[in-house]
Amino acid sequence: MSAVRPVPHPAPHVPRLVFTPHDRIVIGAVEYTPDFSDENGHVLRRVAAPLVTEEFSHDRIWLLSNDRDWRHDRNWFAPESGRRRLAVGATQLSDLRAREAPDVVWKWLVTTRFIEMYEAGACTKSDDDIEHALALICDDLRKLDVSIKPVAPARRARKASRAPTSTRPARQAKQGSRKAYAGSKTLVVHRQPPTPRTLHRWISILEERGFSPVSLRDGRYRSGCRVRQITGEALRLLIHHGNRYPTDERPKIRDLHRDLKAAIDDHNVGLPMGDRLTCPSRTALGLYVAGFGRFKIYAGRYGPDKAKRKFAIITSGLVTTRPYERIEMDSWEVDLVTLLTAVGLWDRLDGKTQREVRRLHFTAAIDTTTKIIVGAVLSRTPSVAAAMKVLRMALSDKRAYATAAGAELPWDQCATPEGIAMDGGPQFNNAVVINAVAWLDQSPLFPSGGVPGLRGTMESFFRTVGMQIIARFPGRTFENVVAKGDYDAEGRACLFDDEQARILTRWIVDAYHGSPHDGLAGETPIACWNRLTQMRGITKAPDRHKLRAIFGIPLVRTLGSGGIRVMNLRYWCEPLVEHFLHHGEVEMDVKLDPDDLGELAVCIDGTWHAAACTSEQFEDVTLEAWIRASRDLARTHVSGAAVTQAAVNAALVAANTLSREASARFGIASVPPTEDDIARAERELMLGWTMPAAADVGERSSADPLDGGYPVSGREDRQPGDDGPTEDFDIEE
Description:
GO terms for molecular function: nucleic acid binding. This is Putative transposase. This protein is about 35% helix and about 15% strand. The chain contains 24 helices and 19 strands. The radius of gyration is 29 Å and the shape is globular. The chain starts with about 25 loop residues before the first strand and ends in a 43-residue tail after the last strand.
C-alpha cells in the first residue's frame, strides 16, 4: 500500500511545520513519528515498522497537511499521554459527555491560573497562600461567568448545595425569553473551591498525565449501579402507571405515584410479609417517565402539533515574537448614526429613514505579533455565533472571502494559536466559546473589563478602522455642499450589510495588510507574516477532523439500514456497519461540518469516527449549497420521484455558483447555520424527492452491510425530524 500520493507543485512560499519528538502524524492510513528535521525537510519513522523511515521536504509535507487523510496529534506517543488515555478513557474534551465538560474545564482553569500565579511569584504552595489564591481565582471565575449550568425552579432546593454556578432570575428560569422585572430575585450558586490538598492532587495529575484539560476527568463516569433494582410485578406496575404520564389526561407524578402505591397495597393484601412488594419510590417513577424523552412526553400530553412548535428545532507592551503566539478577539460597535453624522448625511435623512438605521457589530481577531487580522465578522448583535465564526476563521484558510470581495492579496493566514485573549463580555465569556478554546488545549485569557489598554493591539485596530473606513463607504459627502452636485447622498445613505462587509473585507486584506504599520517599524503585516513564518515556523492549524469536533453542529440521528441520514444524504464507515449489525436501529450522536458535507463524525461507544457520504461529489460541498440544490430538486421533481445522479450534479453546480455569488454579496456578514436551521431545512426541503443510490454501492462493502444487496424486511429509514428540544421544560411533580 502506498503511504504517500503524488502531490502538485507547491506555492512559492510555504510555511515550515514544527513537530515534537512524540507527535503522531497520519498520512493516508500510515502512522509516523518525527525522527529528524532541518532546513531541508523532515524524516519520519513508521510506527508499525520502526526501522523504516521516509523523507519529506517542507513543501511536500505542507501540501500533504492540507489533504483529507492528514492527521497531526501533538505528543500522542509521550508517556504522559498514554497514561492519560488509560486513566480517563478519553483523548480530548469532545470525547467527554456534555455534563462532564464544564466541570473539567473549570478544574483546568483553576489549576492553570494557580500555576501562573505561583510561577509569577504571587504566591507560594503553603496552605494559607493556596487558600488565599484559590479565593481570588474562584471569585474571578465567578465574575467571568464560566460554564453556567441553569437550575430549574423545581430543582433549586436540592441542587443549591451541589450545582456548579447559576446566576439567573427566578422568573426567567422557566421561560428564558421573559424579561426580568424590577425587584426580581436572583439565585446565585457558587462552585466549592478545592482544598489545598485537592489542588496539589490536580497539579500532580497534570504533571503525570500531561497538561491537557481532559487529564482532570475524575472517575465518576464509571460509577453507578448497573443492576436493575425493581423487578417482577413491581416493575410491571411501575411501567403500567408510568405509561399514563405522556397522555392527554396529563396526570402529575405525585398522582401516578399515589395510584402506584394503591396498586402495590392491593397486590400485597393477604400475602405474608416476606412475599410483599415494596413500592417503588417517586424518584424511580420519575426516572422511568423521563426515559420517554421530552418531545414524546410533550407530544403525548399536548399534541404533536404543539410539540413540533415547541421543539422546532492585552496591552501594547506585551512582547510576542512568533506568529500566533497570542491572538486577541474583541467586538466593536459600528454606530451608523455617528458615521452618517460624520460624513454630513444624518440631517439630510427624513424621520422614517433615521428610525430604520441600525447599528452593526464588528467582531475580529488579530495576531499581535504580525498584526494580521485572522478573522472578522459583521453582525447585527455581538452574538456567540459571530465569536465562533471568527475563531474558526482564525484556524482556517480565508481566501474565499478575499476572492469574493475582489481583494488582490491572499488571506490564507491560519495556524494553531499558543494563547487567546478575549473580551470578558457574554459574547466570548460563555461555555460554548470557552470549551472551543479548551479543545485547542488553551485557557482563554480575559483581561479586566473597562481597561482597553490590556487589549491594546485590538483596540488600536478598531481605532484605525474608525478613522480610515469612513471615506470608503458610499453616501459620503464633501466639505463643500455645493460640490455635491447631483450626488444622491440621501438615497445612498441606507447602507446594506453585504456592501459594508465587502468594503470592509477588501480594506482589511488589501489596504490594512498591505500598508506600513507603525507597530511593525514600518513593515507591512503581510510581509511580517511571510518573514516570521519562514523564520520561526507555525503549528499547523487543526485538521478537518478536529475542526469538525470543535465547530461541528451536534445532531442526533437514527442508524438504519441506509446508514446515518442527514439532509437526505447517507453516511457509512466500517465501524458504523459493525455497530449496526450488533445493535440494529439506534440513535447516534453525530457532528456535521456545515463547510464540508463529504464526511461527518459519529460517536460509537464513546469514540468518534469519520463517516463518508455515499453519494459522489460531495467533498467540500457546503451546507448552504446543498440546501439550494435540494430546493431546486424539490421544485423540479414530483413528490416521491427518484432523482438521477446527473440531476443532483447539475443542481450542485448551480447551487455552488449561487453560493459563491452570495459569498461575494455577504462575505463576512454571513453567520454559520445552527441545529435548528438543519432541522428546518430537512422538514421543508428534503421531503419531495429521493436521492439516487451511489453508483458504486455494489463495490463498497464497507458502506453497505448487505454488500450490494437489497433489504427484504424491516422498516425504511425514518424521515428526518426533530432531533431534540430547543428549550427546557420540567416533568410536572
